[in-house]
Structure formats: structure tokens, C-alpha cells
Amino acid sequence: MATSTESLPPPGWDREGLDGLLNAFPEGRLSEIVGPRSSGGGSLLLALLARAASRGGLVALVDGADAFDPETAARAGLDLRALLWVRCGGRLPPAWSAADLLARCPGFAAVALDLGTAGSAAPPSFGVRLQRAAAGNPAVVVVRAPRHVTGSAAALVVSVRRVRACWIGAPRRIRLGGLVSEARVLRSRFDPRLATPGRAWLIEWRT
Amino acid sequence: MTRIACLFIPGDDERIKPALLEIALRHSPSVEDGGPGIVYLDLGGLERLWGGEEEIARRLHRAARELDAAARIGIAGSRAGARFAARAGGDVTIVPPGLDARQLGLAPLALLGLGPEMAARLGRWGIRTLGELADLPVSGLAERLGNEGPRLQRLARGEDATPLRLWTPPPVFEESADCSWGVETLEPLGDLVAGLAEMLCARLRRHELSADTFEWTCRLADRTTHQGDCAPAAPLADSAAAAALLRASLEARPPRAAVEAITLRARPVRVGNVQPRFDEPPRPSPRLLTAALARLSVLVGARGIGSPVILDTHRPDAVRMTPFLLPSPQPSPQRGEGARNPSKENRNPLPHRGRGQGEGAILAVRRMRPPRSVEVILAAGAPAHLRAAGLAGRIIAGAGPWRVSGEWWTEAPFVQDEWDVELDDGTLCRLVRDGRGWRLEAVYD
After folding, report:
1. Which residues of B touch A47 (CB under 8 A)?
2. Beta strands in B246-304 (DSSP E)
3. Using the beta-carbon criterion (under 8 Å), do B285 and A76 form an inter-chain contact?
4. How far is A19 from chain B (nearest CA, A)?
5. pLDDT digits (tens, 9 = 90+) for B124-163
6. Inter-residue contact B390 to B398 (CB < 8 Å)
7. Mean pLDDT across the stretch B398-412?
8. Of B187, B221, B212, B205, the residue nearest B265 (C-alpha)
9. pTM summary value
10. Half-sphere exposure of B287 (CA within 13 A, CB side)
11. ipTM computed for the complex
């Protein structure tokens, strides 16, 4: 059966979709999602947590900016009772310590640190400490930040950028329908093929 | 000769049952909880202590009346006899020794608490009262009903040789320390609490129990009290974890003055020893998780840790925090049953309630807490420019307004108009306008 060529993504864009990208996040290693606000980085982090929880695991989110929205998370499939939400009220030093503490507590399927979209300088040894904490623990440890903060410690670095916003209604826009973002793996110590220049994932996030 | 008293409260009020048991235990060391509204006492050897049976019955009746309970007392040679006397008689009914069978003769069969099958079978034989059952030939009963027949017949005659199943009051897990010199700093107070926690946990372990809540009450030097409690993520009886949790809780909410006395209580729960299933993902150990949560509560405050619960309202950002609890492990399926084809519930140890719908790739919302005030310039009634702390730009696309309102029947109704807008730098955000002006409620990310 012929496939409409218009439904195919542009050349170089990965067709595995979101699952293929989520599978790239290694257990027992530090990963990082980098991207400015409204790039889809927060949505990628949410999808990662939801998938870990859907497999019966417990997940922890250290919310540096106190910006997590449980309603959206529930819609994304995250069982809220499997989530340990640590609200840091915009104070980042406790957030770094809390992430380090949880990464050392075995038994969580995923530990995420959301540094918000404003960004802030991390302590110099922060990335190495977190990587060492993650190493003894079969959990996916992820940092979401507007820019690269973990230095060379992260085994996987995913960069996310906004492609376009999707609006419902034409010519008069009625509602925001979603966001299309592009994710690229900048570094992957486990599967260097993921970081091939030109390889990217096109993800459409719906509201 | 065995003499049993039955304390009977019509109406099956379970709330006063513990008080009834306490009353019974004040009069006799041998007490049985006989089910809803019924308490049995063994009166053997109590005459010299309390006087005759009439005096004991009067005392029991008077004590129950102080609870506003219309109690009836029956005394007989067996439980069945005493129960029938209490149910059928007046406030106090005493069956003389040796006359249980005659007293029970007219009592209905239901007094024996028969199962439906046995009751139906005896009913088919035309047996309606205990007396009729007592008059049947033993050999014929044994032939038709097995051992159960003679046993029921003995009960119908008031012959009940089974000893009372003794009731003992539940142990109170409480430890206290008096420090008349006054503990002014947290470190020695933490050591004091750790010592109490160690004693409590040792007692809990002896009873094969765990604690799901610890409560403390401090008597302070300024003649006030300081109370608090903390709940571990999973019931525990580990003294080190309990001490760490209590230290962190006291550190987060220290007493206002020097502590002169402290009482620590544990709420005991029995935790079944269930082996985790092989297909279950690993869980944090309760000891490590409790210690981690205790340290987290020092870092960010106890209120900032937990699992979110979405409230049943349309009010934006209506969320409540609940303590983070470890889900209890599910028992493994029986051999051959569900092992080959486990059900969906068995595969996931977390119950379905509260789980999200899982609509797939959902655009995340980053909430501003509280919503940030912004300056908005309108053009043709729609937002055209936006300026806020750390965020400014021209609005290149937008949709709205959408009105959100509710709870008009309360003292705090809400109504606001929402816009989704896209700035020229690509930022997607949600603006709201209400009586206080424009605010930035969330940023899509």
C-alpha cells in the first residue's frame, strides 16, 4: 500500500518516535535534558517519569522551581501515588542536595531533577557527585536544565528545541493544540550511534 | 463448678465494646470477647473477692449503666446458658447451678449460632428448640451428623467444657522520660528521643509489630506542651530509622522552650511478611527511604515532600500533598492459578485508582507558584505585548479568552479568563486575567 509522502518526517528525522528516545536513557548513569523554555524538555522529562511509573516503579522528582503540574502529569499517564514530589520552592541548593540524596537511595526506577527554565550555575562538582550517586543504583537519573550543567559527567545528553507551535482552529485560532519539538542526542556513551550528526527525533506534544 | 457471666448489650454498639471489656477485666481475670455486644466472664473463685453472684451481677450492671449502656447480665454454668439467660431475662438473671439444661430447654436453636446448612437440616427434622435437640438420642445424632451432633447436643444441654478464649488488652506502646533539668537544645533532645525510640522499637519487634506513626508530647518549662507526630513511608520497627525520622521531625519543628518531660507513642500495625514477587520492580527499603525522607524534610521542609493528589474541583492548581507511602507488596499468585496468565492487576502492584489516563505525549505545563504579575498591552482587545520579570516580548499568536469559573456557592469563588499566547522568542505561556489584573499562570514546556 502506498504511503503518503507528506506523512513522513523530513530526511534524517528518526521514525521510532518517543519510545525510541526514551529507551536511550540508561539506568545507573546520569542523563541530561537540555533546552530553553517551551522547547519540549519538560514534556520529555514527564514522559520519562510516566513510563518508569507505568512499569510499576516508583519515581522521584526534585522540583527545583516548584513548577510541576500534577494534572498534566496524570494525563501523561503518571501514577501520582508512585511519585515522590520534592518541592524546593525555587531554592536550587537544596534541590541539588535532594537529588544527590535520592539518587543514592536504591529502589526508585527514576530520579529526576528539574532545575527550571531560568537556569542557574550549578556547583562545580555537582555533575560528578550525581553521576557517582547514580552509578550504584539501577535508576534512571535525569537532570532537566535550560543549559548544560553536568559537564562531562552525563552519559547521555539530549538537546531539545522547539520546531513550531500547533494551534487549533483556522483562520481564527481557538486553542493551543500542542508543540512540535526536535530532540537530538549530543552525547551517548553507551550507544554512540544515537549521537550521529543529523539524527534527530521529531516529537509532537499535545495539550 | 464452672460459673460464667454474660454481659450483653442489645443493639450491637461496637463503640462501647472496649469499655465493656475493661469493665469485665476489672471484675475477673478471665474474660472473653463473645462477639457483637457480648462479653463473658469466668466467675470461678470470685465469691470471696466480690461477694456472691448477685453482688457481682449488680456491680457489672451498675458499671455498664455508667456508660449509658442498657446492659443485661446472665449467669449460668456455661456460655450458652449465660448468654440465653442474659438475652431472654431481665437486667440480672441467675440460673441456679445444675439447672442450665432446663433453663435452655425453651431457647431457640439460633442461640447455638449454627451454619445455614445445619440449621436447615435440623429444621427439616422439626427441631426448633435446644430442649428438643437435647432430648434426641446421642447415637442417632452421631450417626447422622458425625461428631458435630453430640457436640451441639452438649451445648444445648448447657455442657460447655471449652475454656474461655482469654481477651487481653492491646499493649500500649508508649515510653516517657523525665528530665527535670530541662533540655534546651536539639542535640540532647534528639538523643533522648532516640533512646525512647529504641525501647519502643524493641517492644514492637517482640510483638512482631511495626509502627506506622510516632507521636510525641513534650512538657515544656514555660508550662505549655509541644505535640507532634511523624509517619514513616512504610511501617517500621527499626530503631535507627525511627530515631533519624524523629530527630528530623523535631529539627523541622523544634519546641519553643526547654523540655522537662517527653512521651513518645507508637501506633502499632501488623505487617504481613509477604515475599516480593519476582516480576515486581525493586522498592526502596523502608529503613533507607525513611532516613532519606527525614533528611529531605530537613532540606526542604516536611510540607514540601509527598505525593500530589488532585482535588475534585475546577480551581486551577488545586493540589494537596499527601505522605509518600510505599505500596504494600502483592502476594504471589497461587501455584497454577494466575501464574501462567497473570491478570493486569497482578502485574502492577499499584492499584488502578488515581492512575493517569496515559494519553501519550502530553505537553507539560510549568506552573508559576504563585502566578506572576505581568504587564500586557492589548491590541484590538487581545494581548499584543507582554512584559514580566525575566520574560518579555511581542505576542505573535494567541487564543482566548476562555473563562474558567466555579465555586460560586462558597466564600472564595473564582473566575478568570485564560489566554494561550506565543511570544516572538518561541515561549508558549498561559496568561490569566481576573479582578487583580494580568498574571502569568504557566509556561508550556
Report:
1. 361-362
2. 259-269
3. no
4. 10
5. 989 888 888 888 888 888 888 888 889 888 888 888 778 8
6. no
7. 90
8. B212
9. 0.67
10. 6
11. 0.90
